[in-house]
Amino acid sequence: MNRTVFTAVGSAVRYSRIAGTGGYLPARRLTNSALADQLAARGVETSDEWIVERTGIRARHFAAEGEQCSDLAVAAARRALEAADCDAASIDLIIVATSTPDMVFPSTACIVQQKLGVSGCPAFDIQAVCSGFVYALTVADSMIRTGAANKALVIGSEVFSRLLDFDDRGTCVLFGDGAGAVVLQASDTPGLIASELHADGRHVDILCTPGSIAGGQVRGDPTLKMDGQAVFKLAVGVLEDVARSVLVKAGRSEADIDWLIPHQANIRIMQSTARKLKLSMEKVIVTVADHGNTSAASIPLALDVAVRDRRIRRGDTVMLEGVGGGFTWGAVLLDF
Ligand code: ACO
C-alpha cells in the first residue's frame, strides 16, 4: 500500500512548526510580601522568605474581577498572531488548555473564537491541568500532520486565583493567573519532532478541586487541594522519565537540548529535573519567580518570554515538559 501523504504544503511528509508566540499577564501583580500582608489580615501566617526558599516564587499576577480566562487567552492569542504575522481568519483550529474555563459550557475555545471575530473552524478545550498545554500542542500537531488543520491557535489560559482557598497557606501562595499562546502551522520541515503524553488516574486525590455543580448548587469543596510532598515526588520522577523517552523517540540526546522549559511550579522540581538530565540551569527557562504557577499557561508563557528576550532563536532545540493534576504528564521536543 502506498502510504505517501501529499499535503497542502506540497511535501510528502507534513510537520507542524511554531510560527509565533504570545503571552499575557493580568495587570495586578502581587509580591510575596503584599500577599503575606493580605493573608495576615485573615490570620494566615506566611512570609516572603518561606515562599522563596520552598518554591522560588517571588510574585504572581491575579486577574481583575470580571476578567475571564477567555480574556487572558485572547490577549495572548492576539500577540501570537501578530508574531506569526497572520490574521485570526486564517486560523482553522483553536484549542484552549484550561482548568478554569469561563463557563461549564460552552468551551472557552468557542468564546475565544467569538472574541477573535471568527467562526467555522473547530474549537475545543483540553483539560489536563498543568500538563494541558503539552497535551494541546500534541493534539494540534497530530491534526496538522494528518491534514485536518493547517494553522492552529494553541493556548494555555488560567485564572487559578479563583480556585484558591486563602485560608490554606500551603497552596494559596503557589499559583497565579496568565495565558500563553502559539500559532502552530503546517510545514515541510519539523517543527515538532516527538512528543509523549501520560496519565495515571490512581493519583486523582493528591491534586484536585473536588467541587461540582448539581441542581443549581455547588456540591463539595470547589477550592484547590494538594498533597504537596506526594506531588513533588511524583513530578520529579515522571519529568525525568518522559524527557528521556521523548529523546529516544526523536533519536536525540540530552546534549542536543538547547533549552528546557519545564512546567513552572517550583524551582526545586526544575533544578532536580535539570540535574537528572545533566543540563545546566542556564539552559532552563525559569519564570516561576515572577509568574507563580499558572498551570496550563506556564509553559507557553515561559516560551514567549524566552523568545521575546531572544534567548530562544530559530533553529534551537527546545524540550517542553508538563506535569499536573490527574496525575498527567508529557513532553514535546521541537526545533523552534
Ligand atoms: N508559609 C509558611 N509556612 C508554611 C506555608 C507557607 N505558605 N505553607 C506550609 N507551611 C508550613 C507547614 O504548615 C509546615 O509547618 P509545620 O512543620 O509546623 O507543620 C511546614 O511549613 C512544612 O510544610 P510542608 O507542606 O511539609 O512543606 P514542604 O517543604 O513540603 O513545601 C510545598 C510545601 C512548597 C508545596 C512543596 O511540597 C512542593 O513544592 N510541592 C510540589 C507541589 C507543587 O509544586 N505544586 C504545584 C501544583 S502541582 C503542579 O503544578 C505539578
Reconstruct the topology from this structure.
Elements: E1 15-24, E2 28-31, H1 32-40, H2 48-55, E3 59-62, H3 69-84, E4 93-97, H4 108-115, E5 123-126, H5 132-145, E6 151-159, H6 169-172, E7 177-187, E8 192-199, E9 207-208, E10 212-214, E11 217-219, E12 225-226, H7 228-250, E13 259-262, H8 267-276, H9 288-291, H10 298-308, E14 317-324, E15 328-335
Parallel strand pairs: 4-5, 4-6, 13-14
Antiparallel strand pairs: 1-7, 2-3, 6-7, 8-15, 9-12, 10-11, 14-15
Bound molecules: acetyl coenzyme *A.
Could you explain how this protein is built, in words?
With 336 residues, the protein is α+β, with helices and mostly antiparallel strands. It has two domains: 8-187, Thiolase/Chalcone synthase (Peroxisomal Thiolase, Chain A, domain 1), CATH 3.40.47; 192-335, Thiolase/Chalcone synthase (Peroxisomal Thiolase, Chain A, domain 1, 3-Layer(aba) Sandwich). Helices cover 32% and strands 25% of the residues. The chain is built from ten helices and 15 strands. It has helices at residues 32-40, 48-55, 69-84, 108-115, 132-145, 169-172, 228-250, 267-276, 288-291, 298-308, and strands at residues 15-24, 28-31, 59-62, 93-97, 123-126, 151-159, 177-187, 192-199, 207-208, 212-214, 217-219, 225-226, 259-262, 317-324, 328-335. The strands form five sheets. It has a five-stranded mixed sheet, with helices on both faces. Strands 8-15-14-13 form a four-stranded mixed sheet, sandwiched between helices. Strands 2-3 form a two-stranded antiparallel sheet. Strand 4 (93-97), helix 4 (108-115) and strand 5 (123-126) form a beta-alpha-beta unit. Helix 7 runs parallel beside helix 8. The radius of gyration is 19 Å and the shape is globular. Mean pLDDT is 96; it is low at 1-7. The chain binds acetyl coenzyme *A (ACO). The site of acetyl coenzyme *A has 23 residues, from helix 2, helix 6, helix 7 and strand 14.
